[in-house]
Amino acid sequence: MKAIRRFTVRPVLPDPLRPLSDLARNLRWSWHAETRDLFQSVSPEGWAGAGGDPVRLLGSVRPARLAELAGDRRFLRRLTAAADDLDDYLTGDRWYQEQADGLPAAVAYFSPEFGITAALPQYSGGLGILAGDHLKAASDLGVPLIGVGLLYRHGYFRQTLSRDGWQQEHYPVLDPNELPLTQLKEADGTPAQVSLALPGGKALRARIWLAQVGRVPLLLLDSDVEENELGERGVTDRLYGGGSEHRLLQEMLLGIGGVRAVRTYCRLTGHPEPEVFHTNEGHAGFLGLERIAELCADGLDFDSALEAVRGGTVFTTHTPVPAGIDRFDRELVGRHFGPDAELPGIDVQRVLALGMETYPGGEPNLFNMAVMGLRLAQRANGVSLLHGQVSRNMFAGLWPGFDAEEVPITSVTNGVHAPTWVAPEVLRLGVRQIGVQRAEDALSVGRSERWDAVADIPDQEIFELRRTLREQLVLEVRERLRASWRQRGAGDAELGWIDGVLDPDVLTIGFARRVPSYKRLTLMLRDRDRLMELLLHPERPVQIVVAGKAHPADDGGKRLVQELVRFADDPRVRHRIVFLPDYGMAMAQKLYPGCDIWLNNPLRPLEACGTSGMKAALNGCLNLSVLDGWWDEWFQPDFGWAIPTADGSGTDPDRRDDIEAAALYDLLEQRITPRFYERGRAGLPDRWIEMVRQTLSLLGPKVLAGRMVREYVDRLYAPAARAHRALTPDTARDLAEWKARVRAAWPGVSVDHVETTATTATAELGGTVGLRVRVGLGELGPDDVEVQAVSGRVDAEDRITDATVVPLKPAGPPDLEGRLLYEGPLSLDRTGPYGYTVRILPTHPLLSSAAELGLVTLPSEEVVEGAGMVLR
């Protein structure tokens, strides 16, 4: 029989065990081994059955067992120690509190997904895991972050396989009352809510759930409330589900509703109001509009409010291709704003202009969320050095007249939260070397450039550690593979072969990620005969563990999964290559440590960062990857291998795959497997162990989320907080008026004449050339602009590379025609073809970059002809 209604019965804990509830409700347990060990000791069988979720565990423990524990002095001592440790963690000063004054009182961090723990499945892939690691690292560092997201009733999806290997999706219903969440309530005990106005007089309401991530509150908005009509109740049903309007409503709720939820949380708890708002990808971009509306309600005009909002906003893009950006029909967006819908006090045309693709090749009828995010943020970044470069090129059209290098998008390379992803066995090895406190500090704060203590670990210990982790993975894979085959319809009598799948002494390669086409799940299958030879080599075999989900609407991705599964089903190789369905955090935490090689072969440069290899590296796994994302930045032959790429513009895609697959096979055959199986005098793979050591000591400190969040604080949050404070209503109004005046007057700005003291086309290194420039500023004054000399080496087409920029100084009053003379020296600091130009830019103390307005004046063709020559 099926129940007609479902509700959650919570356990009543005896008074001595009450601290268990606090420990279960704070998600710090997900990265704190001692707390997890405590919960496991409550009921080892129950802990396994609850999937390592303390909330579910406590709901299943028998009252008799609870009474027994309430009288167990040893358990109560451990409970007291764990509760005291959590209290100290939540209230003590940490890295952030040790910094100089001036940092933001609070930062609001918005993301469409958060991967905190498998017990709270609100993530689909790398973006969500990164957001979860950002929150955890901020907590460890003491950064006063408030996370904001949506609570999806079906999460992403659970993946199984059909008998013929086709991906099947399942959407289990999540009950918030059974998750590690509490409902935010008003002082009178009623649920706190936010509401959005919809066209036609309707409303979208959402309640606010709170997940406590260490010191960081994470607010999750849930539209499944009785006051909503059926369509509105389903807005937060699935992550990345539904059509355009569904997605638009999700993103309006995340951005606009999210700001309202933050205001509600701060009002109810006394938490400081955020001075900085960080948009993790464009999905939450509407938060800037809500903040503009707040300021307009206080009397500011739109342009002044826009300047005030931009100062305190940070935008992070994770997308290396335009196709990865959310874009909506302009009419759809326009219908959801204005007098009959949301933000009625703001002109709809001003809203639409923020997302308009005004650059060459842009679609004028589409509303681009990333473009809006960049226009609403004074500071923006990509997530690796290479991705920053790709982003500057991709969005250069928003700053016409500037070279891509000057586009104001910087980069902060992603990191991963080591306490979450480092295997307990690896952590224990570190603790033995340097002690508990130093090990925790090294993994969470990550102040050092290298972990020198790794050099003192004996080779034998590293070798035994790696084999232990590999053996654990083998057992995990067999268990998951057996469960998968049962779901595919196989009986136990058919599955005896699974006991021989994988070997703890064989070189193990891991490949696990989402399955869009650019990540090339099946590149390893390009030459199946060569792959079979590698898998079945009599002396140097390899084994491969593969996992990954295709988007439910991506049949191409599903075909790639099926192709891989069918190969792995072949009885000749199924003991050496496996595909594990339902890739998620719980699987990943076993997979990364147990692999010897982490494989990544995307189409360069389409991997924005790619953090899975970082998690593997923290466990002593070596990377074998295309030079893309973070690997392009930090690769060294000491600790991994780079797959050569054939990414020339003239290379046919099939030909490129053939070339790069052949390079992958060559590396495995000629360099990697010999090094793994080669033994030294002590019977150990000495050269392999040395690479593991280098991975841990050199890569370890770099890939930490603690390093990443410290960079965000120093390079983005602190400057944004200073800009936020500087942009009071009056200064924001002054800045908006100045920008309007400069834009209106800019057509009257000109470079009228350029001359140098150079008399020949050659000059000597170390010399200087005098430069005199006569300019017309029209209605602007010298304080409104900066006249610059830009010089450097030139290529065959006279384009300046590696430019040096020098401001020129005014020399004397205006001439009879109102033109001003600027002068300055050019230092000839490099040899070879050398050239210069001059330009005029707007300048103001409150601009974050010279390119902010996208205005620049260069010499006309007539001026260029008389401006001297390229020095060679």
UniProtKB/TrEMBL annotation:
**UniProt key word Secreted:** no
As stated in the Swiss-Prot or TrEMBL entry, residues carrying the post-translational modification N6-(pyridoxal phosphate)lysine are 615
User: Which segments constitute the DUF3417 domain?
Assistant: 13-120
Give the source's domain of life in one word.
Answer: Bacteria
MF GO annotations: glycogen phosphorylase activity; pyridoxal phosphate binding
Q: What class of enzyme is it?
A: transferase
**Which transformation does this protein catalyse, written as a reaction?**
[(1->4)-alpha-D-glucosyl](n) + phosphate = [(1->4)-alpha-D-glucosyl](n-1) + alpha-D-glucose 1-phosphate
Q: List GO BP terms, alphabetically.
A: carbohydrate metabolic process
Question: Which SUPFAM superfamilies does the protein's record reference?
Answer: UDP-Glycosyltransferase/glycogen phosphorylase
Q: Which UniProt keywords apply?
A: Allosteric enzyme, Carbohydrate metabolism, Glycosyltransferase, Pyridoxal phosphate, Transferase
Q: Which cofactor does it need?
A: pyridoxal 5'-phosphate
Q: Does the keyword Transferase apply?
A: yes
Catalytic activity, EC? 2.4.1.1
Summarize the protein's role.
Phosphorylase is an important allosteric enzyme in carbohydrate metabolism. Enzymes from different sources differ in their regulatory mechanisms and in their natural substrates. However, all known phosphorylases share catalytic and structural properties.
The record's comment on protein family reads: Belongs to the glycogen phosphorylase family.
Q: What is this protein called?
A: glycogen phosphorylase
From which organism does this entry originate? Streptomyces corchorusii
